[in-house]
Specification:
There is one protein chain. This protein has an 8-stranded mixed sheet with strand order 2-9-8-7-6-3-4-5, with helices on both faces. A 3-stranded antiparallel sheet has the order 10-11-13, covered by helices on one side. Strand 6, helix 7 and strand 7 form a beta-alpha-beta unit. Helix 1 runs antiparallel to helix 13. It is 41% helix and 13% strand. The chain is α/β, with parallel strands linked by helices. It is built from 13 helices and 13 strands. The protein has 2 domains: 157 residues, Aspartate Aminotransferase, domain 1; 246 residues, Type I PLP-dependent aspartate aminotransferase-like (Major domain) (Aspartate Aminotransferase, domain 2, 3-Layer(aba) Sandwich), CATH 3.40.640.10. The structure holds pyridoxal-5'-phosphate. The site of pyridoxal-5'-phosphate (PLP) has 12 residues, from helix 4.
Length: 425
C-alpha cells in the first residue's frame, strides 16, 4: 500500500515488523558492497586471451615495432578500431594509455592553464571558471572540477539527458561557464540515453556559449547495452559537422569495461586542430603510449562487429544482476511511494531516489547491517545532493547471490527509513 494511505496504526505495526527484519539482517553479519562500478571477475576473464595473444609478433600493420618508442597518436589500426566505437574518422581520434579519465583531466587542465588556442585563450586568465554538471552524474567528473578550482553548477538530468532549456539559458547568460560534462549513452548513474534532440542541441551549444567552451562527451558506455533492443545514441559527429563546432567537443571512450578495467586502452576524439594542439602538449609528457597493449587489443577485438559480440557476453553476465535488483525493488517497493528508480537498458548503474531527506539515512542503515552503498550525495557536485535523495547502486561486481542479498537488505532499509520519517521517530 502507498505510504500516504497508511494510518498511524498501520505505520506503527510496519515499524515493528521492519525493526524485527532489520535486527535479523544485522545478526547475519553480512558483508556486501554495492558501491563499485567495476566489472566482475568473470567479466574481465572474458578478455584473458589478451595475455600472450601477440605470440612474439610485435609488428603493427605498417611494420612498426610496437615495443619501441613513438607513435603519440596511437597505432593506426587502433585508431581505426576505436574510431568506429565513437563513430568518428580515424584521423579525428587519438589513442592513449589505459584511462579515459586521465585524458579528460589532461584536456580540462590544458584548457584551463595553457589554453586550447594559446595562452590568451586559457580559461584560467579569468578569475572565475565554471562548468555545468548535469546531476545526478559521475563523481569523478565533479572531482576533476573541484580539484582544479572550477566552480560547478548543477543542472537537472531528465530522461532525455541534461535539461537543455536550463543549459542553454545558463551558457547564454554567463561567460564564465566554459564546459559541460556529458555521459550520453547509459549515463552514470541514471542509465538514460540522450535523446536525438538533446544530442543536436549539445552539438550546437558551443555556438551559444563563451569562447573556447567545450562539451566533454564521455561516451564510457558507448557499446555497453544490456539488451539487444537498447536505445541507440544519435551520432553527435554529423551535427558537429553541420554546425562547425568540432573545436568545441571532446569525445572520450575506453575499453576499461570491454577488456581489462585496469589495463585497457583509452581514446579521445576531437577536431584535427584540437588534436594537433594536444599532441604538441602531450609530447612534453610522453614519447608515446603503450602500443604493445594497443596491438593486443586490435588482435583481440578485431573490429566493431566483434566488439558487439564480445559485449553481448558481458551483458549475459551482468543482466541477471540488474534484474535481481530491479525485481526486488519492484516487489518490495513498487506502489509504496517510498522511492523511485531507473531501469537502465545498459551501463553499470541503477539510480534510486528515496523520499526527500532520506538518502543519507538509508546509506547509514545499510552500513549498520553490513551493506556498503555509495555515500549519499556522491552523485552531485561537492558531494551535496540538495534534496538528499539519490543513491547510486552498482550491481556488476558482487556475485548474483550477494547482489540479491544486498537488494533485499536495501529494500528493508528504505522502508524502515521511510516509515520512521513518516512517524517522526
Ligand atoms: C562515466 C564514466 N567515465 C569514465 C569512467 C572511467 O573510465 P576509465 O577507466 O577509462 O578511466 C567511468 C568509470 O566508472 C565512468 O563511469
Amino acid at each position: 500500500m502507498h505510504i500516504d494511505q497508511l494510518s498511524a496504526a498501520d505505520l506503527a505495526s510496519q515499524l515493528d515488523a521492519l525493526q524485527g527484519q532489520y535486527g535479523k539482517l544485522k545478526a547475519l553479519n553480512l558483508s556486501l558492497d554495492l558501491t563499485r562500478g567495476k566489472p566482475g571477475t568473470e567479466q574481465v576473464a572474458l578478455a584473458d586471451a589478451l595475455d600472450g595473444i601477440l605470440q612474439g609478433d610485435f609488428r603493427a600493420a605498417d611494420g612498426t615495432d610496437v615495443r619501441n618508442y613513438g607513435g603519440l597518436d596511437g597505432l593506426p589500426e587502433a585508431r581505426a578500431l576505436f574510431a568506429a566505437v565513437l563513430d568518428l574518422p580515424a584521423n579525428e581520434l587519438l589513442v592513449g594509455g589505459n584511462s579515459s579519465l586521465t585524458l579528460m583531466y589532461q584536456v580540462v587542465e590544458f584548457a584551463l592553464s595553457e589554453g586550447l588556442r594559446g595562452p590568451p585563450s586559457a580559461w584560467g586568465n579569468s578569475d572565475t571558471v565554471k562548468f555545468l554538471c548535469p546531476s545526478p552524474g559521475y563523481d569523478r567528473h565533479f572531482a576533476i572540477c573541484e580539484h582544479l578550482g572550477i566552480e560547478m553548477i548543477t543542472v537537472p538530468m531528465l530522461d532525455s539527458g541534461p535539461d537543455m532549456d536550463a543549459v542553454e539559458a545558463l551558457v547564454e547568460d554567463d561567460e564564465s561557464i566554459r564546459g559541460i560534462w556529458c555521459v550520453p549513452r547509459f549515463a552514470n548513474p541514471t542509465g538514460c540515453v540522450y535523446s536525438d534532440a538533446t544530442v543536436e542541441r549539445l552539438a550546437r551549444l558551443p555556438l551559444a556559449a563563451a569562447q573556447h567552451f567545450i562539451v566533454m562527451w564521455d561516451n564510457a558506455y558507448a557499446v555497453h547495452a544490456l539488451y539487444e533492443d537498447a536505445p541507440q545514441l544519435a551520432s553527435i559527429a554529423a551535427h558537429i559537422r553541420r554546425h562547425g563546432t568540432g573545436d568545441g567537443v571532446f569525445q572520450f571512450g575506453s575499453t576499461s569495461k570491454i577488456t581489462f578495467a585496469g589495463a585497457g586502452v583509452a581514446f579521445l576524439g576531437s577536431s584535427p586542430e584540437n588534436l594537433e594542439t594536444l599532441r604538441a602538449h602531450l609530447a612534453f609528457q610522453t614519447i608515446g603510449p603503450d602500443k604493445v597493449n594497443q596491438l593486443r587489443h586490435v588482435r583481440f577485438l578485431q573490429d566493431r562487429a566483434n566488439i558487439d559480440v564480445h559485449m553481448a557476453r558481458h551483458a549475459a553476465l551482468i543482466r541477471p544482476r540488474f534484474e535481481a535488483v530491479l525485481d526486488t525493488l519492484e516487489r518490495e517497493l513498487g506502489g509504496t511511494g517510498m522511492g523511485s528508480w531507473t531501469a537502465p537498458r545498459g551501463g553499470y548503474f541503477i539510480s534510486f531516489d528515496t523520499l526527500p531527506g532520506l538518502a543519507g539515512e538509508v546509506v547509514r542503515l545499510a552500513q549498520g547491517i553490513g551493506v556498503r552503498l555509495t555515500p549519499a550525495g556522491a552523485t552531485f557536485p561537492y558531494g551535496r545532493d540538495p534534496v538528499d535523495s539519490n543513491i547510486r547502486l552498482a550491481p556488476t561486481f558482487p556475485s548474483l547471490r550477494d547482489v540479491q542479498a544486498a537488494a533485499d537488505a536495501f529494500a528493508v532499509c528504505v522502508k524502515l527509513a521511510s516509515v520512521r520519517q513518516r512517524l517522526g521517530s
